[in-house]
Amino acid sequence: MSARPIYVFMDESGNLDFSGKGTDHFVLSAFVTQDPLECGRALQELTYEFLSRGLESQIPFHAANNTAGTRKRVVSALCGRDHHCFVHSVVADKHLAHPSKHAPDVFYGLVGKAMASYLLQALPIGFEPVVLMFDSALTGKLKGAFLKALKPQLNSLGRPYRIIFRPVQHDVNGQIADYHAWATFRMLETGDREWFAQLPGSHDEFDIFSRGHTRYW
Fold first, then answer.
1. Does the predicted model carry a pTM greater than 0.85?
2. Which fold has domain 6-207?
3. Structural domain boundaries in the chain
4. Residue 3's pLDDT is what?
5. What residues contact 199, with CB distance under 8 A and at least 6 apart?
6. Mean pLDDT by 10 residues, the chain (217 residues)
7. What whole-number distance in Å separates Cα of residue 208 and Cα of residue 158?
8. Taking Cα atoms as reference points, which of 183, 80, 101 lies closest to residue 145?
9. For the chain, which terminal residue's Cβ has fewer other Cβ atoms within 10 angstroms, N or C?
10. Is the separation of the CB atoms in 188 and 29 below 8 Å?
């Protein structure tokens, strides 16, 4: 096995409720890095700083639950363009999803397939295995649908890969993915670009319904 793995940390924002009570958008972000120690170092240091100051309620870093002050500190600790990392997000306006795609496992499989196709074009050559890490909160039919969509695409890479489900609170790199997903979601959902505009480094978005025009709910 090569000693040059590449890591993909994924997290999401939004929900899978296709009703007036649900979110309008759904975002899945993938934080890709050749060196998770380099990219996560500043955020790990911030974690220990918060522990020393009695700010346990603010960690692990979860953008939706953090205060504005904590978010500013976290965003300032995210790695920039000098690191070997980038972020790709798959975004969806759920109103444009045909009713046949509304079942949570079907929709999640659709998003997973889009992310896999996206990553196929983005992952640099010469690094293996590809290590994909996702929040272990994903269980049951959603997990099965995600893996069903992801594995065939990864198999076509012809490169070894590992898929690991691990609590996002246990890894600061997963928390980086959380912040990118949340900031992208907030921009789409509320029009507030403040946090998205502050995100450093390389990040882009793929809209899976960019050609859609019919709103179904």
1. yes
2. Nucleotidyltransferase; domain 5 (3.30.420)
3. 6-207
4. 67
5. 75, 78, 87, 179, 180, 183
6. 82 95 97 95 97 96 97 94 90 97 94 90 88 84 88 88 89 96 98 96 93 90
7. 25
8. 101
9. N
10. no
**What are the tokens at 40?**
């996560």
Both tokens assigned to 23: 């979110």
Look up residue 116 and give its amino acid. A
Residue 15 φ then ψ, to 5°: -130, 180
DSSP secondary structure letters along the chain: --SB-EEEEEEEEE----STTS-SEEEEEEEEES-HHHHHHHHHHHHHHHHHTT-GGG-S--TTTS-HHHHHHHHHHS--TTSSEEEEEEEEEGGGS-GGG-SHHHHHHHHHHHHHHHHHHHSPTT-BSEEEEE-TT--HHHHHHHHHHHHHHHHTTTS-EEEEE--GGG-HHHHHHHHHHHHHHHHHHH---HHHHH--S-EEEEETTTT------
DSSP type of residue 62: -
